[in-house]
Amino acid sequence: MPLELSADDALVAAAANFAEPLTRLERAFEASHPHRLRVAAGSTGKLYAQVLHGAPFDILLAADQERPTLLERAGLAVPGSRRTYAVGRLTLWSADPERIQGDVAALLEAGNFRRLAMANPALAPYGAAAREVLQGFGLYATLRDRIVTAENIGQTHAMVATGNAEIGFVAASGIRESDEGSRWEVPADLHAPIRQDAVLLAHGADNPAAQQFLQFLHGERARTIISDSGYGVDP
Predict the structure, then answer these.
(1) Whole-number Cα distances in Å, 79 to 33, 56, 64, 69, 230
(2) What is the pLDDT of residues 85-129, one digit of tens each?
(3) CA atoms within 13 A of residue 75's CA, in its CB half-sphere
(4) Phi and psi (nearest 5°) for 32?
(5) Distance CA 112, CA 108 (A)
(6) DSSP type of residue 174
(7) What is the distance, to the nearest Å, from the Cα of residue 127 to the centroid of all Cα atoms in its chain?
(8) Helices in 123-228 by DSSP H: which ranges?
(9) Cα→Cα distances 176→134, 165, 229, Å
(10) Is 63 within 8 Å of 196 (Cβ atoms)?
């Protein structure tokens, strides 16, 4: 069922990994502005495809820089509006408190698990980063038969949380206080930076709600919320 928007609303397409922080940002924005947001969350690859096919999104909060750049080049985003709003952090996580210990490369090489979950590298930048880590360890081809892929990083978290995969690469921001288990924070130098860019789409070029939310997104209050949610932010 399509979302019904008023003139004071903006429709934000957001990467699945950013859905929870966006809820906090939405509340803070709406408390201080006379506008409302409507959110559609999903994998960046699918959201990008929807924009190409005419979806009426006003803003894209991507999980990468590539798709916003491509939309600018295609004339589907406002030139000069693209900017990094968050830097993602990758974590190897298991619901088993004893599973992730010691030398992680050796643990993965030993393969004492049936399934390793990760987001689809073709759709989700966190999946591409996870693949890069495994390739760096020389284990991607070895573990390929055990890798199960999800459409987005949220589904990857669910696979590990439910035990459908004993171990998985998830977004650090997706680990909740209630999540038990063991984890390894992947060093940032093991994969390309997961820089997440926001861009004002052509559909929202004249939408005051969209313009003001992007301005808010890059302000100090929003940056604090984003940082507290487990992301890096540019200085």
Answers:
(1) 25, 18, 17, 9, 29
(2) 999 999 999 999 999 999 999 999 999 999 999 999 988 889 999
(3) 0
(4) -120, 5
(5) 8
(6) G
(7) 10
(8) 125-136, 140-143, 153-161, 208-217, 220-228
(9) 25, 18, 10
(10) yes
